[in-house]
Each structure stands twice: as structure tokens, then as C-alpha cells.
Design goal:
The complex is a heterotrimer of chains A (470), B (263) and C (200). Chain A has 470 residues and is of the alpha/beta class. Chain A has 22 helices and ten strands. In chain A, helix 16 packs across helix 18. Chain B is α/β, with parallel strands linked by helices. In chain B, the strands form two sheets. A four-stranded parallel beta sheet of chain B has the order 2-1-3-4, sandwiched between helices. Chain B has a four-stranded parallel beta sheet with strand order 6-5-7-8. In chain B, strand 7, helix 12 and strand 8 form a beta-alpha-beta unit. The longest helix of chain B is centred in the last third of the chain and has 17 residues. Chain B is globular. Chain C is α/β, with parallel strands linked by helices and 200 residues long. In chain C, a hairpin with a 4-residue loop joins strand 5 and strand 6. Classes of the chains: A alpha/beta (470), B alpha/beta (263), C alpha/beta (200). Chains in contact: A-B, A-C. Chains A and B meet through helix 1, helix 2, helix 15, helix 17 and helix 18 of A and helix 1, helix 2, helix 3, helix 4 and helix 8 of B.
């Protein structure tokens, strides 16, 4: 992927907020409610924190032995009759999928949600080659019809109102634009999708987990759409990131207890489906995809991000994500996990993402596999600063401030001679050349007539520095 | 180094020890009353408190933006200023977190290790080290919304984050419960970030302001008159938002409440 | 000797070069303490929470009557269980597309999970996988003695080496993709009823 223009999430988030009085508050409210459900479900599991620790260790163990587990998975899946393919990058993945489809003469494909296929840009690739691709997850289908990427990895269209969807469906599948009841809209899409499931020559899925011990992969959905895609067309192709391995069947108990509770505050997704080799009368292909993952494994500060199980809890808890909408991140992965994953694909393009965070730390605490997301965001800031990607104004003012803060005599001199405009604001707010960002929605704090230091000199005259620690 | 929560000063506290008062730059300039309250409060317990006059800034604005190079001079100066004190106490969670957790790019000399381990946020110092059980001089007859900052909760561990499962605790609330007349009002989102976030509040102004406004509405909806926090930086932001929005909320530091002023 | 330039070898070699130095042991999963209360009420409550319902029935005749009461207009009832004959036998289905007109599918699950209200169904139980998804409604027979407390125990029961497809199903198909409003019957079955009945 080439270095395109930098994404500016702050500007895009502002657009989401000022768009109207409906979208941002709704988005925040829905995801906050998901978090409340998550907290209730987690609290009902006495061993919750222990499960997080075990899950984290299983993932770290697997990743530090990843070559072994991939080979074991491949051997077992092959033994059970699956065809296993490997793809170094997105292009390799897309070519592999296309070649399987071509060999089977497939021109219509029904797919369930897969962040990996999204990451690879698979749908446009196949459509340019004459394959009709239909997303079967309702939220993904909404986004596909609106020519937008998913804005959330679990709730792809969570940034849209029911009116948005009603109008979109009116434009694209001919429903009544004024009929915006979610039950009606869901039913309309069910009826629209059913013939596509029956006509499709292949079904595609992702994979949430791949079990080395048995060559099984597990797909979790609520709609059952992945299962229809796997059960009805004769050909099933699954795209699986190499980091999805887990060693044993037994490990699944830990992950499934954490996944849906973290993702949506439910004990499980409605369907947790286990595919081990092709179904009776069907054919199964598995494409194992690297696309930067093996390189990330070698990044000392960042390889823990490979533990991610894509639950989206960090997005739901993130106060910045909730006010920004996922599209503001301009990348496949949004929210806190996106902030630490996206720069591994393109450091320059996504160099602003690590700054789109208040570093509150909630993402690290909520993560079911204990990824140190917040610490990684700060470490990415360090990378961006070292690479010279900090915005110019910040760079220059930090250099000046860094010098002044290191020299108390200059600091106190600056305090005294500060211009009136400056004298109303604390120094660390002045890094931007203009004060506008602070004052647009806030009153400036007033500088005190007497600083604490001045008060201290006037009121604690006996002050003496101690020479040694006791 | 990963985020560290509990302070780990290996030197057990004793009454004759020297306490370094760490007054962050913005408190020095804008909220001197918070510095005064902190100093007076510590002095009430008979402590030997010194204020190094050469202190400037802990380096957080630069460090928090990933700019370790430009943060280094301020961080080194901080070590020089405070290395001779047994305990260092500051009324600001995020600045204490900066010292304890993010002075990790400096060479880890004995002085650096000592300062990092010995620097405490005021609430945890009162609660964990002094183990204060009463503030007989303090009285506060107002409904109060407590705002523990994210740095204090998730960085320093002064309260249980809502995301972590287990028995609830809140050291700030514990201390405030010992103040006569003070009533803490429950709020909907007690530990959702207010959107200050250091330089974030200007670089991501729209999101920051929205978070702050949501916070202020949460407080006022539950009948709070005062918002009290161990972190004045969050309050500076929230106060700016509330004033602009015309919301009648007053913002003070927990040290002012516990010391009985100055307000 | 593998060709070193295949994607497979490129990936595995890149991984080997980049493996973190840190060695982490595979942790043992402890047996977590469980309250000694009966599992069936938990199962029923969680199933209901997931949008399903459970019914205590005493005989195949009661099952037939309940099926008719729940789905009075059903024309095509496709059964994979001996207790219910249905209008079509699952064993007779040659191709899953034939299931497109099924109103009610009837299957038997191997066991249920109390902490979620999910049931475990394999390809052998479904006869044709599509039966659980193309049917408009699903009826699942379950022996009330076959309920495990949680997912740890559940995974001790599943035999992934013996089936190409197995699924924990927790209630009917659902979505909350439009304004977070819960709707059942997104793509798969619109309802899922569990009938408690030991096998004949």
C-alpha cells in the first residue's frame, strides 16, 4: 500500500459532530449501552479477570510458536479434506480467491463479514473481474449499498439512523422511504438476500479462531448468515489471518466466554460455528493470510496487537471513538485497536491516528486479551515524533517549550513578560500557534494575580532546601 | 515500561521525612489556591514540606505527544529538583503519572528510580501513606460530583475502573466521606473521560469539547453544585466548557475541600 | 524440501525470523468453581434472554401437538428426528437448495449449555446443515439431563474430529444492525424453540 495523503481524524470527527444533533449523540448512546451490558455480563463471571489473563497467555504462547501451530493447523485441515492456501499479502489473497472462483466457474458470491477481506480490498477486486459479491450481514450489506466501509468491526452501520437506512433501501432496493421501522427494514433485506443465497456459486466467510489441534476454524455471527453461505452453495472459501491460531479445542472455552460478552454483552453470539473440513457434498478452501502480520510479530513494542480477537470492546468504551464515528479514522480498523493496527500498514498515512486519543486507558482495561492498547498508542506517538510526522506547529513549539521547561530562569522570565493574550492561558495550551482551538467551545482560564511560587516566597520565608534524603 | 499503578517507594514513611511539594506549572500560574491548600493540608499533619523553587514542568505535554527528545530537559530538571526528598507529593494525577510511568526514556539512574518511586499523587499519599482517618477542620455543605481523572484511576489506581471486575474502591471518595456535610451525588458515567487529555484538548478540539459538555451535563443532571477532582487539569477544561455553555457548576480541587479552603 | 519461494515458505520463514524472544507457556485452564444449583432453570432463562423458549414435554405426541400450536400455518415440516415424522424427512434431501421452502425444521441437539442457553448441533444431528438455517423456524429436542454448566465443560463434550460442522446455537437468528434495535430472523430462523424430551 502506497503512502497516500495523511488521514486527519480530528477534522473528520468534527464533521460527524457538527453534522446535526442526531448522529453523534445516538452513536455515543448506543455504544455506551453496549458497554453497560458488557459490564453487567462480565460482572456475572467471577473468574472474568482470570479468564482475560489466561486468554492473553494463550495468545502470547501461540504467537511465540506461530510457525508450529500454523503447520499443525494446515496438516489437520488438509487431513480432513480442506484445501489450504497461503497468501503473503492482500494481492496474493485476492488472486487465490479469484482463482478458486474461476476454476469453479463461480460468478455470484455471498459473503459474511470478514475484516480481513475488508483489509485486502477483496470485494472491489472481484467485482472488477466480473464476480457479483453480496454482503450477507445486514450491517455490512447496508454499508455495501452505501459504498462505505464498515464503521465498526461488530456493528458496521452503527453510525446510521433508521431514517438513513430507510432512504438508502428506498434508493437501492425500492422500499418505502418513509417506512423506517428496523423490523420492516430487516425483513425487506432478508427477502432481498434469500434469493442471492440460493443463487450463489460460493459462500465466503472469515474465521474468528483456527484450532491447530483439529484443523477447525470457528465463525461467530448473530444472523446465521455465515452458516447459510457455508451450508447452501457447494463451495466455501474462508479467509483467515495467520494470527487467528489457537492451540487446542479446550482453549475455545476461554475465548468464547470472553468474545461475545466483550463485544455485545451477550454470553455468546447466536451462532458459534465450527468448520472442520468440507461439509457433506461440499468443497472447502482456506486461505491463510499474512499481509504484514509476520512483520508486526517482529515489532517489539507492537506485536501484542496480534492478540486481538476483534471484539470491538475497545471501540465501545472509547470516549473518542463514540464521538467520532468509525469512518473518521479513514482506515479498515477504527477506534483504539485501529489506532495501533493501521500504522503497521502505512505509517505516514495513519500518522495522525495515535493522536486521536485522550489516552484515558479504558481500552487496555476492557480488552479481553489484555492488549496494552493505550501504552501502544503512546509508543506510536513516539514513533511519529521520531519520524518527523508531528504537525509543524507542534514540533516547533515543543522545541521551544522543551528548552524553556529545562531552564528555570528562562521559564520564570517567560512567566513575567508574557503578552496579555498569552497571560490568560497556561503555557502548555499554547503549542498551537493560535488559541482558537481552546476558545471555540471553552472560556479561557484566568491567570492568577500571584503565582503559587510568588505566594510561597512571600509566606514561607524560612524555606530551605534539604541537603540529603533522610 | 508498562503502565505502573501503585507507587512503590521502598522507603517506609516516618514522620521526620522530607516531603517535596510538586506544584505543576498550570497550578502555579492559574490555580495557586490549590497549591496553597495542598501545602497547608500537608503541614497540618506536621510534615516537613519543601518547595523546590526551580521547578517548571514535568515534561508531560511533550512526552504525552511522543516527543521524548523535547521532554528530556524538563524531566531531567525535575529529577534534579526533587532527588533530595524522601517523598514527592503533587496535587495532580496526570503529572504524577507522567513522573512515575513515563520517565522511562531517561537513563534509569539511582536518582531517577528514587524520584519515580517516591512521587505520589496527593490522594494516594493521604490515603495510603498517611492513612488519614479524619479532617476535623473541614466542612463542605454542598452536593458534589466526584471526577477522578483517567490518569488517577487507570494510571495510578486510586479507584477501580468500571471496566475491571472485582470489588469497588475509590480512595478519593473515601477521603471525601470524612468531610462533614459533604454529599457525593452518583452520576451516570463516573469514569468516562472528560476529554481533556493534555494537548488532545486543542489538537482534537471538537471531540474534546463534546466529551467535556457531556460530562458537565451528567454532573448538573444529578444535582451537583461542585465538581471536585484530584486533577485540576481536567477541571480547567470542564470549567471552560461549563462557563461557555452557561452551566452553573463550580470546580475545585480535592485539596481545597480537605483543607477547608482557600476557595 | 519445500520451494522457499512459495507464499507458504515465505510466511513461515518470516515468522521464524520475527518470533518474539519471550517464551510464554501454554497456560493450564483451571476448573472453575460452580454454584451447586440445578442447571435447567439457568439454561431456560438464558435461552429466553437470547430470544428462544423452552418447553417441558412428556411424549412425542405432545411434541407434535406443541409444534402445531406454535406453527399452525406450517406447510412444510422437515424432520431429522425419529419422534416427529414431519412432511419431509431430512434424510431425503439431496441438495440444500431443496430446503428453501421449509417452514419448520425439527432436530435434536446433543446437549445444552446453562450459562448461555445454547445447544450443540452437528452435521450428523442436522443431516443437512442448511436445515438449521433455511427453515423459517427451528424446533430443537433436548434431553433435560444433557445440560452442561459452561463453555469449558461444553468443549470437553464436543468431538470436532468426528464432524465437519458443529454449532452452538443460542436462540434464533438476530441482528441489531439498525439503530441497535434487536430483530429476530435476520437471515436464519425466525424462532427457536427447545422441547425438553429424552430420546426414545
Amino acid at each position: 500500500m502506497g503512502s497516500a495523503k495523511q488521514v486527519d481524524p480530528a477534522v473528520a470527527a468534527e464533521q460527524f459532530i457538527i453534522r446535526d444533533k442526531v448522529h453523534e449523540p445516538m452513536h455515543d448512546r448506543f455504544l455506551w449501552a453496549v458497554m453497560q451490558r458488557r459490564d453487567r455480563e462480565a460482572a456475572a463471571i467471577p473468574e472474568w479477570e482470570e479468564l482475560r489473563e489466561i486468554a492473553s497467555q494463550i495468545k502470547e504462547h501461540t504467537l511465540t510458536h506461530l510457525d508450529r501451530y500454523l503447520e499443525e493447523f494446515e496438516a489437520n485441515a488438509t487431513r480432513r479434506g480442506a484445501h489450504v492456501h497461503w497468501a503473503v499479502d492482500a494481492a496474493g489473497h485476492n488472486e487465490a480467491v479469484h482463482s478458486i472462483l474461476r476454476d469453479h466457474g463461480v460468478t455470484e458470491l455471498i459473503k459474511s463479514k470478514s475484516m480481513l477481506q475488508e483489509e485486502c480490498g477483496m470485494t472491489p477486486y472481484l467485482e472488477h473481474r466480473g464476480v457479483k459479491v453480496t454482503e450477507s450481514d445486514l450491517g455490512e450489506r447496508i454499508q455495501q449499498l452505501d459504498h462505505q466501509p464498515p464503521s465498526h468491526i461488530v456493528f458496521p452501520a452503527i453510525h446510521k439512523t433508521r431514517q438513513d437506512v430507510a432512504q438508502l433501501f428506498a434508493r437501492t432496493i425500492g422500499t418505502d422511504p418513509n417506512h423506517d421501522d428496523p423490523h420492516f427494514l430487516t425483513e425487506e433485506m432478508r427477502n432481498n438476500a434469500r434469493p442471492r443465497f440460493l443463487a450463489a456459486g460460493a459462500g465466503m466467510t472469515g474465521g474468528n479462531f483456527a484450532i491447530a489441534e483439529t484443523g477447525t476454524f470457528v465463525v461467530c455471527t448473530n444472523e446465521g448468515n455465515a452458516d447459510i453461505g457455508a451450508a447452501v452453495p457447494p463451495l466455501h472459501i474462508a479467509s483467515i489471518g495467520i494470527e487467528k491460531m489457537i492451540p487446542r479445542v479446550e482453549d475455545m472455552g476461554v475465548f468464547l466466554r470472553l468474545l461475545a460478552r466483550s463485544a455485545e454483552g451477550a454470553p455468546l453470539t447466536q451462532y458459534s460455528s465450527h468448520f472442520t473440513g468440507p461439509r457433506k457434498g461440499g468443497e472447502l478452501h482456506i486461505v491463510l493470510v499474512d499481509n504484514g502480520r509476520s512483520r508486526r510479530l517482529g515489532m517489539l513494542d507492537f506485536w501484542h496487537s496480534l492478540k486481538c480477537i476483534r471484539c470491538g470492546a475497545c471501540m465501545n468504551t472509547c470516549p473518542v471513538y463514540r464521538r467520532s464515528g468509525g469512518l473518521a479514522y479513514g482506515a479498515t480498523y477504527s477506534g483504539p485497536i485501529g489506532v495501533i493496527l493501521d500504522p503497521t500498514f502505512d505509517e505516514f498515512k495513519y500518522s495522525e491516528l495515535p493522536f486521536h486519543s485522550s489516552l484515558c486507558g479504558s481500552c487496555s482495561d476492557v480488552c479481553p486479551v489484555k492488549i496494552d492498547i493505550s501504552d501502544q498508542i503512546l509508543k506510536w506517538r513516539r514513533v511519529m515524533a521520531q519520524k518527523g510526522y508531528l504537525p509543524f506547529a507542534k514540533r516547533v513549539s515543543f522545541a521551544v517549550a522543551g528548552h524553556v521547561f529545562g531552564h528555570p530562569e528562562e521559564y520564570h522570565a517567560v512567566e513575567k513578560i508574557a503578552e496579555p493574550a498569552v497571560a490568560h492561558a497556561p503555557h502548555f495550551l499554547l503549542y498551537n500557534r493560535s488559541l482558537n482551538p481552546w476558545t471555540r467551545d471553552r472560556e479561557l482560564p484566568q491567570l492568577a494575580r500571584q503565582t503559587f511560587r510568588e505566594w510561597y516566597l512571600a509566606n514561607r520565608s524560612t524555606h530551605a532546601k534539604p541537603e540529603h534524603r533522610s | 515500561m508498562a503502565t505502573q499503578t501503585e507507587a512503590t517507594n521502598p522507603v517506609p514513611f516516618s514522620q521526620g521525612m522530607k516531603i517535596g511539594l510538586f506544584i505543576p506549572c498550570y497550578i502555579d500560574l492559574i490555580y495557586p489556591e490549590v497549591g496553597i491548600a495542598t501545602l497547608e493540608l500537608l503541614e497540618r499533619f506536621g510534615l516537613d514540606v519543601g518547595f523546590p523553587l526551580d521547578q517548571t514542568c514535568c515534561g508531560q505535554p511533550m512526552s504525552n505527544s511522543g516527543d521524548e527528545v523535547n521532554a528530556a530537559a524538563a524531566e531531567r530538571l525535575f529529577i534534579e529538583n526533587f532527588k533530595t526528598y524522601d517523598y514527592i507529593v503533587g496535587p495532580a494525577g496526570s503529572c504524577v503519572k507522567q513522573v512515575r510511568c513515563h520517565f522511562d526514556k531517561l537513563e534509569q539512574t539511582e536518582d531517577v528510580r528514587h524520584v519515580r518511586q517516591g512521587t505520589y499523587e496527593l490522594v494516594e499519599f493521604l490515603h495510603d501513606i498517611l492513612k488519614v482517618d479524619s479532617f476535623p477542620w473541614a466542612e463542605f455543605q454542598h452536593p458534589v460530583a466526584l471526577h477522578n481523572s483517567c490518569s488517577s484511576i487507570r494510571g495510578l489506581g486510586i479507584a477501580k475502573p468500571s471496566e475491571i471486575m472485582g470489588p469497588a474502591f475509590d480512595k478519593t471518595a473515601d477521603l471525601l466521606s470524612k468531610v462533614k456535610g459533604l454529599v457525593l451525588v452518583p452520576v451516570d458515567r463516573p469514569d468516562d473521560c472528560c476529554g481533556f487529555g493534555g494537548t488532545f484538548c486543542v489538537t482534537d478540539e471538537a471531540v474534546s469539547a463534546r466529551m467535556g459538555l457531556d460530562k458537565a451535563h451528567d454532573h448538573i443532571r444529578h444535582g451537583a453544585e461542585y465538581v471536585v477532582s484530584p486533577d485540576m487539569s481536567c477541571l480547567m477544561h470542564q470549567q471552560g466548557i461549563a462557563r461557555r455553555a452557561g452551566l452553573d457548576l463550580k470546580y475545585i480541587h480535592v485539596a481545597q475541600v480537605l483543607n477547608g479552603g482557600p476557595f | 524440501m519445500q520451494n522457499p519461494n512459495t507464499d507458504r515458505e515465505l510466511i513461515l520463514n518470516a515468522i521464524r525470523q520475527n518470533l518474539p524472544q519471550q517464551q510464554v507457556e501454554h497456560p493450564a485452564i483451571p476448573v472453575f468453581a460452580r454454584p451447586g444449583r440445578p442447571l435447567k432453570p439457568d439454561f431456560e432463562r438464558n435461552l429466553q434472554e437470547a430470544g428462544g423458549a423452552a418447553h417441558d414435554l412428556k411424549s412425542p405426541a405432545e411434541v407434535q401437538a406443541k409444534l402445531e400450536a406454535l406453527h399452525p400455518g406450517a406447510k412444510v415440516v422437515c424432520s431429522a428426528v425419529p419422534e416427529i415424522s414431519g412432511t419431509r424427512r431430512a434424510e431425503s434431501v439431496q441438495d440444500p437448495h431443496e430446503l428453501a421452502d421449509v417452514d419448520v425444521g425439527v432436530v435434536r441437539a446433543q446437549f445444552g449449555v446453562a450459562e448461555s442457553g445454547a445447544v450443540w448441533l452437528t452435521q450428523e444431528d442436522l443431516v443437512v446443515d442448511g436445515l438449521a438455517f433455511l427453515s423459517q423456524h427451528l424446533i430443537v429436542l433436548l434431553d433435560p439431563e444433557q445440560i452442561v454448566p459452561d463453555m469449558h465443560e461444553a468443549y470437553r463434550r464436543v468431538q470436532l474430529n468426528e464432524t465437519a460442522y458443529g454449532c452452538f446455537m443460542m436462540g434464533p437468528s438476530a441482528t441489531a444492525d439498525i439503530e441497535a434495535t434487536l430483530v429476530h430472523g435476520a437471515q436464519g430462523v425466525r424462532s427457536l424453540n427447545v422441547f425438553f424430551l429424552p430420546p426414545v
